[in-house]
Structures are given as structure tokens and as C-alpha cells.
Design goal:
Shape: globular
Strand content: 15-25%
CATH topology of one domain: Rossmann fold
CATH superfamily of one domain: NAD(P)-binding Rossmann-like Domain
Radius of gyration: 20 Å
Order of helices and strands: EHEEHEHHHEHEEHEEHEEHEHHHH
Number of helices: 13
Distance between the termini: 46 Å
Bound molecules: nicotinamide-adenine-dinucleotide, thymidine-5'-diphosphate
Length: 351
């Protein structure tokens, strides 16, 4: 079996659902169920005896030690993190706590467990750390995309905390021989995405008649990857990645934020036209820029393509249509996550 952390969040839950579509191998899913963790993401697994969701913190050594001892996983996949840049600007401490201290404690528990494994289980064990392209900092319009050897230059409390966790993972390999793998992926989008991030926020705001907030001039560039393509990359790295290596994962889909939102609007115009017949693009509103806003991220995914034969299945155009369709078909999920505390966040960030 495998132990997944953060598997009730956006990418983690997509990964767990994808895992059970591909494999019958059991998953223990450790998730603190913060505002971003949602057991409803895993509702379709109810009654599946091969999946167990355990509410708890990756930094709770006693809990993690006992889960490792009881379940004897062949791999630990670490998705758990505080993940939203804007929240890291308002309140960085949780990011240090989970992303840095939590990852450190998890590594300590995993090291103790792995050290005591007999062969051949010890050699076969893997710790896969899920990270982000944001650790490499910001590119100019003419810079080459990030490769695995780019210098780390994180600019937000979020990316700095992820960079710190990546360094710890690297150090546990070099110092203790822990069999680690790290993936640094670009911006994901798709089903089950909490509507605080650009794409799900704009879908939700468009359909509820609210403004579509564009930070600054909207010309910041991100590389977008459909979440299930990220999941297939992680499965492939787990299966065949070289120990201690880093793999950049991306979709070769660089887009300016304004273009992303305009595309979303035209897909919505077609799939769910406004009652007044006007285009959703009329709801686009320019708002104050994010402090320290990184201008451009771009991923060179040649290494994972060359070494592991991975390629994304979706283009931005196909992935965004699937995403919009999912949000239109899952209004109860959206209502569930946008009541209560969500309103406090949007008031703090946008009002
Ligand atoms: P998310 O915020 O949607 O989910 C994070 C999950 O971790 C939640 O379920 C939350 O409850 C859980 N969690 C938080 N603190 C925890 C703790 N201390 N112990 C246990 N569980 C905890 O994030 P996401 O977008 O699914 O991202 C998952 C991972 O992928 C993160 O490590 C993130 O840095 C990385 N990543 C995200 C993106 C992206 O575009 N979203 C891109 C590249 C990499
Ligand atoms: P986001 O989805 O928060 O991801 P990240 O900051 O990790 O890249 O933001 C994606 C881009 O969209 C980023 O350049 C910030 C911008 N953005 C807006 O313009 N308006 C918004 O309301 C949000 C949430 C993001």
C-alpha cells in the first residue's frame, strides 16, 4: 500500500481518484482537513475498503509513526501543504509550520521507518515530494523555461516554504540515503479545485454575477497543466524515477492571465450563456496587484519526457472545457465549499 498526505485537497484527491482508476493498491490518506481539505472530494470512494482517510497533521510524529508501523507502506507521497500564495502574504506562519516544519517531521518519521525495513522492502521504498515551479522564481519574457538545474529564487512566503521543504528532501537523500523523488510542477487546473485560485474563482464568480478580478495588468504568464496529467506524471516518477532526482512537470501551455480568463469566458458563453445574453468578459475587472507578483513561470519538461516517456494528454483547450463542464455539473460541491469561512477570505482579499 501507499501513504498519501494531503489527499483530500485539490491535487491529492485527484491523485487518489486516479490511483483507484489505475490500480487496486490500497491508500492510506493522511490529511489535516484544513479549509482546503474536503472529504467530499473523495465521496465516490465511500465503501471502498482499500481507501482510509485519516484526519491528522504530517507534523504529528506519534500519529505518522503509528500509521507507518501499522500499514507498512511501500511509498509515501507528500502532497500536504499550505498552497495559496495570497494567503501566504496575509499569514505566512501556517506555511512555515506545515511546509517546512511539517515536511521535516514527516521526513524524520519516514527515515526512522525506512531505516528499520528489511530488504528487499528497504531498497524498493520511495518518498515522493510534490513541489512547485514557483521555487525557481520569476522569468522575464525572453528567458528560457525552468530546467531542473535552475537556481532556487523563491519570491513569496509560499514558494520560500516549498523551496525549504525541497532542500530538506534533497538533504535527507544525500545525508541519510533516503530514497527520495521530487517533482516541480506548473499551475494545475481541473475538477475539485478550491475557488480561491484563478481558474475556479473566475468560473464561480462568472456564474454568480461577480467581478472577475485581474491583478495588475493581467499579463503575468503561467504554464497550465490539467490536474490528471500531473497525476499521471507523479505515478510515472514513482514507478521509474531515478533516486534523488528532480523532475519538472509542465504542460507547454504558457498563457497570460488575461488570456486565460478571456478563454474561460468564451467557453462559459457557449456552455452556459448569461441570462441577459451579454458576454461574461464584461465581468472582467482590474484590481490591485499582488505584492511581489512573479511575472512569468515556464517549465521545460524535457527531462521527464525523455527519461520517463511522460507526456500530458490534454491541451489547455481540451482541459479547460472539461473543467468548465465539471463546475457546471457539480454546483452542490461548489456551494459546499463557498459557504462560511470562504466568504471571510474573499472579503479580506477582494473587498
Ligand atoms: P490544496 O491546498 O488544495 O491541498 C492541500 C491539502 O493538504 C489539503 O487537503 C489540506 O487539508 C492538507 N494539509 C494542509 N496542511 C496539512 C498538514 N499539516 N498535515 C496534513 N495535511 C495538511 O493544495 P493542492 O493545490 O492540492 O497542492 C498539493 C501539493 O501540490 C502542494 O504541495 C503544492 O505545493 C503542490 N503544487 C500545487 C500546484 C497547484 O497548481 N495547485 C502546482 C504545483 C505543485
Ligand atoms: P493562482 O491561481 O493564485 O496561482 P499562483 O499564484 O500559484 O500562480 O494565480 C494564478 C495567476 O493569476 C497569478 O499570476 C495571480 C493571478 N490572479 C489574478 O489575477 N486574480 C485572482 O483573483 C487570483 C486568485 C489570481
Amino acid at each position: 500500500m501507499i501513504l498519501v498526505t494531503g489527499g483530500a485537497g485539490f491535487i491529492g484527491s485527484n491523485f487518489v481518484l486516479d490511483w483507484f482508476e489505475q490500480s487496486g493498491e490500497s491508500v492510506v490518506n493522511l490529511d489535516a482537513l484544513t479549509y482546503a481539505g474536503n472529504p467530499a472530494n473523495l465521496a465516490s470512494l465511500q465503501g471502498n475498503g482499500n481507501h482510509a482517510l485519516v484526519q491528522g497533521d504530517i507534523g504529528d510524529a506519534a500519529l505518522v509513526d503509528s500509521l507507518l508501523k501499522i500499514h507498512q507502506p511501500r511509498a509515501v507521497l507528500n502532497f500536504a501543504a499550505e498552497s495559496h500564495v495570497d494567503r501566504s502574504i496575509h499569514a505566512p506562519e501556517d506555511f512555515i509550520q506545515t511546509n517546512v516544519v511539517g515536511t521535516f517531521r514527516l521526513l524524520e518519521s519516514v527515515r526512522a521507518y525506512w531505516s528499520g525495513l528489511p530488504e528487499p522492502e528497504k531498497s524498493a521504498f520511495r518518498f515522493l515530494h510534490v513541489s512547485t515551479d514557483e521555487v525557481y522564481g520569476s522569468l522575464s519574457a525572453t528567458d528560457a523555461p525552468f530546467t531542473e538545474t535552475n537556481r532556487y529564487e523563491p519570491n513569496s512566503p509560499y514558494s520560500a516554504s516549498k523551496a525549504a521543504s525541497d532542500h530538506l528532501v534533497r538533504a535527507y537523500h544525500h545525508t541519510y540515503g533516503l530514497p527520495v523523488l521530487t517533482t516541480n510542477c506548473s499551475n494545475n487546473y481541473g475538477p475539485l479545485h478550491f475557488p480561491e485560485k484563478l481558474i475556479p474563482l473566475c468560473i464561480h464568480n462568472a456564474l454568480t454575477g461577480k467581478a472577475l478580478p485581474i491583478y495588475g495588468d493581467g499579463q503575468q504568464v503561467r504554464d497550465w497543466l490539467y490536474v490528471r496529467d500531473h497525476c499521471s506524471a507523479i505515478r510515472r516518477v514513482l514507478e521509474a524515477g531515478r533516486l534523488g532526482e528532480v523532475y519538472n512537470v509542465g504542460g507547454w501551455n504558457e498563457k497570460a492571465n488575461l488570456d486565460v480568463v478571456r478563454t474561460l469566458c468564451s467557453v462559459l458563453d457557449e456552455m452556459s450563456p448569461r441570462a441577459d445574453g451579454k458576454p461574461y468578459a464584461e465581468q472582467i475587472t482590474y484590481v490591485k496587484d499582488r505584492p511581489g507578483h512573479d511575472r512569468r513561470y515556464a517549465i521545460d519538461a524535457s527531462k521527464i519526457e525523455r527519461e520517463l516517456g511522460w507526456k500530458p494528454a490534454e491541451t489547455f483547450e481540451t482541459g479547460i472545457r472539461k473543467t468548465v463542464r465539471w463546475y457546471l455539473d457539480n454546483t452542490a460541491w461548489v456551494e459546499g465549499v463557498t459557504s462560511g469561512a470562504y466568504k471571510n477570505w474573499t472579503a479580506k482579499q477582494y473587498d
